[in-house]
Write a structure and sequence with these properties.
Chain lengths: ~425, ~425
Amino acid sequence: MAVTAEPVTEVCRRARAASLLLPAAATADKDDALAVLARRLRERKAEILDANRVDLERGVEAGLDAALLDRLRLDEERIEAMATGVEAVIALEDPVGELLERRTLESGIELEHRRVPIGVVAIVYEARPNVTIDAAALCLKSGNAAVLRGSSSAAASNAVLVELAREAVAEAELPAGTVEAVAGGGREELGQLAKQRALVDLIIPRGGEGLKAALEEVAEVPILYAASGNCHVYVDATADPGMARRIAYNAKVQRPGVCNAAETLLVHRDLATELLPAILADLHEAGVELVGDGRVRAAAAVPVAPATDEDWDREYHGLKMAVAVVDSVADAIDHVNRHGSGHSEAIVTASADAADAFTGGVDAACVYVNASTRFTDGFEFGMGAEIGNSTQKLHARGPIGLRELTSTKYVLRGSGQTRG
Amino acid sequence: MAVTAEPVTEVCRRARAASLLLPAAATADKDDALAVLARRLRERKAEILDANRVDLERGVEAGLDAALLDRLRLDEERIEAMATGVEAVIALEDPVGELLERRTLESGIELEHRRVPIGVVAIVYEARPNVTIDAAALCLKSGNAAVLRGSSSAAASNAVLVELAREAVAEAELPAGTVEAVAGGGREELGQLAKQRALVDLIIPRGGEGLKAALEEVAEVPILYAASGNCHVYVDATADPGMARRIAYNAKVQRPGVCNAAETLLVHRDLATELLPAILADLHEAGVELVGDGRVRAAAAVPVAPATDEDWDREYHGLKMAVAVVDSVADAIDHVNRHGSGHSEAIVTASADAADAFTGGVDAACVYVNASTRFTDGFEFGMGAEIGNSTQKLHARGPIGLRELTSTKYVLRGSGQTRG
């Protein structure tokens, strides 16, 4: 792979120039580029796999662990998934130009409030090369110029994927600079990227707490964190026992390494003697390591270690769960607001009052009643592809899809109005 | 005035506690508090004026200039304007709970996407005591706890106004902590406030570039800048001459010290010999100091000094204007995008193509066709009161009204759904 030693500023400057033209790009042209990209991914499969083999061999030499190597690895199936993912973005509505409001002001001026692209969006991510294609496709459809900064471990794979995206942009006659990439996955390039306030409008980091901390330290560009989740399931006194068992199990066990998996289970004290031991037995059988407070440990028929203060704040990213007994829905809400990360929180209840108290009182992007936290996802929400899930309260909260990649503009048409 | 030496963290902690209860506050209770506040402002006029007199005397002693003293000064009329401003907020629709989307997902889960308060909003402002009431009223109606930090020059006035707001909050039985104030207007308190990431969700500074720079240096809390404006009026080749003269004059002269006043006039070269001199003569007669490029100076019949490179980037905040001749609408767009601050930009034209090119190509919060830039304002836009104008692209762009003081929440109601 040809790592260009080009300064980050030059890369961003080309993206900026493209970003001034992209708001006017026709939906058909953007969709054409996406169709070409999907086709190239399939046609050039062998080239992609060759590059990926280089990354994998380097990864083995560098001693990457099995999980990282798996995330890095591409195969025919994963390449086909990238192509169908791009085709799914074609099917999504173009958010650019969407009319949010139109009205005639007292002055007679006609006001229109419309969605416009944000401008230059930088995506910073780790390992998985498919993010290169997801991010390029979402930015392209939303009229943003993308500056991609993958990790050095995927450099060869990403170089080929970026090249395919650029060919698609060129073939659809969209501005050069629509898809740019920062070569070199080091912290120095990251620092440079994070300081391009004049050229980059937004950085979206997809990665762990280390990446977040590194960016917070240096960033001058606004950041939208696709953040980690410390999610809870609260089983209320009135919960249907079978439903509670299924939801608690699903939220923890179905895919424990993702951000919408549950980390803590809260159970109402009325259920401590019967339902709680049954839920704990389910989790134990699935191989979940359990830690809990005194009341949980007293009730459990399976091993539950004592929970430390830190356990309530942790995202385990695996088969481990903290469990507490609470005295009321109010106590559950208080626990969630003190320890949660504002991602996805669920209550299992048959009481409308408890459901309303929980959905109103819990301060999070997504609050569930009688469903698993695992549904927080752009596809599940009917938004199409997503670029992560925001736990921030400003700009975008929840799945970051095409609309969340837009800003707005007021256009005001008059007939000579002046202010008196 | 009793300046409490209370730590900033304690003030923010009380606001945080209130912010957890405020999302559930009934619109009627919030409106009650606003009605009480309007009444108290009228009933306690004498007390407010006494406190204001203390600030004014201190200001004179400290040698504040006439403009600052004027902004600091309250009189019966200005107090009445504050009271009617609060009543106008009562009339605005409560944004909290507004339904943005509702649909049934493929999983059968019912998704609702609603507006919720942001949480704790800190407003940092200078001199004018009326901002205390505007900010408190807008935060209250939008369900946010407000942390107000006025300048030390208005300390006595602000202390009385905050007290009235607190009494109104108490009388309506809203949570204590709904309106909080940081005593002491120094940079140290500002720095402390800007670091309360765990307690404050947003800071909105209302002030000049000095305040902005001071905050950018230290802030860890997200900031929404109610920023300054370097606004342009572009007179296109096809402009109606009378309309062009009126709009250029109004945008510069009607109130030159505000952020939506124009700083630069761009005129198409076809109009350089006839219309341009007439516009310059109007401005000169109004006392506007003119600077211009070579073509402007050659055409003008009134004094026009040479413009320096810096002139194109400056917000004069007064009766001074930079003028340039451009060769096309494309050149005008390019000038605006290079030098503008993304606030408010106007084209005067009879050509639909030129209007579309300008509104599409100019990257700004508000783009006008055949109207003065001076209309950028929450009241003029039919949004009611505002807390400034955002030139950022993220979260809110344009006037910051009640909706812009909200975040969103997804509430998802299922019947036991788990993810497969």
